[in-house]
Amino acid sequence: MIWAIVALLAIFSFLPVYSAASNLAYTYGDGQTFSYFIKHFVHLFLGFSIIYAIHRIPYRYFKGLSMVMFPVVLILLLVTLLQGTTIDGANASRWIRVPFVGFTFQTSTLAALVLMVFVARYLSKIFEQEISFKSSIMPLWLPVFVVLILILPANFSTTAIIFTMILVLAFLGGYPLKYLAAIVGSGLLVLSFFVLIAKAFPDAMPNRVDTWGSRIANFMDDRDSEEDYQIEKAKIAIATGSLYGLGPGKSVQKNFLPQSSSDFIFAIIIEEYGLLGGLFLLVLYLLLLFRIVVVAQKAETVFGKLLTIGVGLPIIFQALINMGVAVELFPVTGQTLPLISSGGTSIWVTCLGIGIILSVSAKREEIRNQSEDEQHPLEILSEAL
User: Fold this and answer.
1) Beta carbons within 10 angstroms of residue 160's beta carbon
2) Which of 19, 49, 194, 289 could disulfide-pair with 249, CB 3.0 to 4.6 Å?
3) What is the 3-state secondary structure (H, E, C) of 115-168?
């Protein structure tokens, strides 16, 4: 079922990406959109290859891999941050260029996945023990805050989403609510301290504090800004789409939305396929959520349960955030629509998470098949009847 849902999302993504890519083709290219179609195909092909390869790995190995990958992502995040890339004076150090290959990679996306696996490993380790806040600070919360602090200067929305997902995972893992409240308070304190430092010493380190403030203020009030322009065009696209849409490739607002093939692709989908197309997409994500919960509930170990929720829930949450931004339920965040939006990093890391979920599911199927092989044929027939 998960394979089928992911395949449907991937197949559905081709038409809106190909349609919305015309804006990029005429703005930055020679007007040819077919190259963007091929690029998206390559990204998805590599993504499905990742799913197949990862789902063949027994999920217990991800415990050790998270420990190995954690220092790697710390180094990648540090290198990304030290690049000092700025756009209009704001920190834009989100990507690093892979040598010899030529493509860019958003390190925070990989760091989020590794961190969720890391937290699931620790929570499963202490699941049946009496949890002490003091004893969990160094092995759990210090690594979490280090990663979040490295992501925060260039990407507040990703930091907030990761922090929220970790809190949800910790709650499901049995971490006491009173300790979680202390962690939330500590997080708000660190964020406030960072904002104050950024305001007091704006030249000390490039940051996006002013951008965060303008986006929140624009969301609360009607102000003229780039974000307001994007939301306005997105809402026009949604209103134009009505119930059935204008038809594939017939979007008008794709020519005006700067991020029509990534951040605001949901608005283009509704414009071309109507409310029915948008609801179809929403149902697919909710069905994927349902299957993730089923896999987690049937997992044989606590680590399998927490691992499935830890890597699966952020995919659905990101999709809902992206849809919510398009209809102005949330401020502009820059989050893509998983498996739909163009972009290699988002697709590959999402597929990596899907592969991990399928690995947990595959282990259960293997145990069930072994159990059936050991049964007498008459017992199998009796259970079937």
Assistant:
1) 18
2) 19
3) HHHHHHHHHHHCCCCCCCHHHHHHHHHHHHHHHHHHHCCCCHHHHHHHHHHHHH
Q: What is the mean pLDDT of the segment spanning 75-90?
A: 71
Describe the crossing of helices 2-28 and 34-55 by its angle, rounded to 10 degrees.
150
Give the rounded percent of residues in the chain with a pLDDT score beyond 70.
Answer: 83
CA dist 119 and 140 (Å) reads 7
Contacts of 195 (CB under 8 A, 6+ apart): 209
C-alpha–C-alpha distance, residues 144 and 141, integer Å: 5
User: What 3-state DSSP class applies to 248?
Assistant: coil
Residue pair 41/47 in contact (Cβ under 8 Å)? The answer is no
Element (H, E) at 195: helix 177-200
- Cα(74)–Cα(62) distance, rounded to whole angstroms? 18
pLDDT at 377: 52
Tens-digit pLDDT profile for residues 177-211? 999 999 999 999 988 888 888 777 766 666 666 66
Q: What is the pLDDT of residue 381?
A: 44
Helix, strand, coil share of the chain (percent; to 5) = 70, 5, 25
12/273 Cα distance (integer angstroms): 11
Closest CA to 48 of 1, 106, 6, 100: 6
Query: Residue 332's pLDDT is what?
Result: 83
Residue 383 identity: E
88 pLDDT exceeds 70? no
Alpha carbon dihedral 64, 338, 327, 256, in 10-degree steps, equals: 130
- Residues in the chain, overall count: 385
Residue 347 identity (one-letter amino acid): I
Burial (Cβ within 10 Å: 0-12, 13-18, ≥19) of residue 377: exposed
Task: Say how far apart CA 123 and CA 174 lie, in whole Å.
Answer: 8
Quote the CA–CA distance of 341 and 264 in Å, as a whole number. Answer: 9
Do 100 and 42 form a contact (C-beta atoms < 8 A)?
no
Segment holding 353, helix H or strand E = helix 344-374
Question: Vertex 296, ends 310 and 292: CA angle to 5°?
Answer: 75
The closest of 331, 365, 339 to 284, measured between CA atoms, is 339
Could you tell me if 254 and 268 are in contact, meaning their C-beta atoms sit under 8 angstroms apart?
yes
How far from each other are the two terminal CA atoms of the chain, in whole angstroms? Answer: 24
